[in-house]
Amino acid sequence: MNEHYLTELPAGSHWSLLMRRGTALRLTDIEGGANVGMLFYNPENTLERYNAPDTLKCQHTFRLTTGHCLYSDMGRIFCGIEADGFGWHDTVCGTANAQQVARQFGELNYQQARNERHQNGYDSFLVELAKYGLGKRDMAACVNFFAHVGSDDNGNLRLEQQGKAGASVTLRFAMDTLVILHTCPHPLSTATDYPRHPVRLTLDYQRAPLPAICLERPENQRGLRNNTLYYLAEQPQGV
């Protein structure tokens, strides 16, 4: 049986999927310059969703990379970054809206340009969230994969680097997770033309636990214990 599923998303796309506990999702920036915005929810209780402040605070970091875990607002771990060929992913800047994209790249809708339209991350998230009965009130701070964001001495944020050709990042899931994503421009993008950089998604169905590198911090060990408690009453496989 094929244990992998591959698909390629062009820029300005959106998608959603359910990742099962133990499976992995690998994102690959094919050409360089890609951005992947992502949100996470508990499919059994969508009130539980990704919490960016807790994710950064408990791991004493501003960036996300290998060994970091992504937390829910219930103190559980959605997934850990198992491998990372880029080295810096943003979870502070949020996502661009229609007004920002129109101002920067010009307004170009589906009727005018079909799949070459200028889609924005905010509306892309809403389209996917609606498939699960969710909406604006369910939006949260997102992760922007392949986005290296820095700041100056006054705290002004800037996009230092957007993607790298061939770079990939692998997420190993520690609980069943509803993943909502888009491939629209980062809100701090300085591009003058709408970015058109595709992303490859590889789903690995072969299950494995979080790698040891994700559990080096005691905070992440405690987070994983919260996951264990959550699944304590789960029936064994085959029952």
UniProtKB/TrEMBL annotation:
Species for this entry: Dickeya zeae
Domain DUF1989: 8-178
Pfam hit, one: DUF1989
Top-rank taxon, per record: Bacteria
Protein name: Urea carboxylase-associated family protein
InterPro entries per UniProt: DUF1989, UAAP1
Lineage: Bacteria, Pseudomonadati, Pseudomonadota, Gammaproteobacteria, Enterobacterales
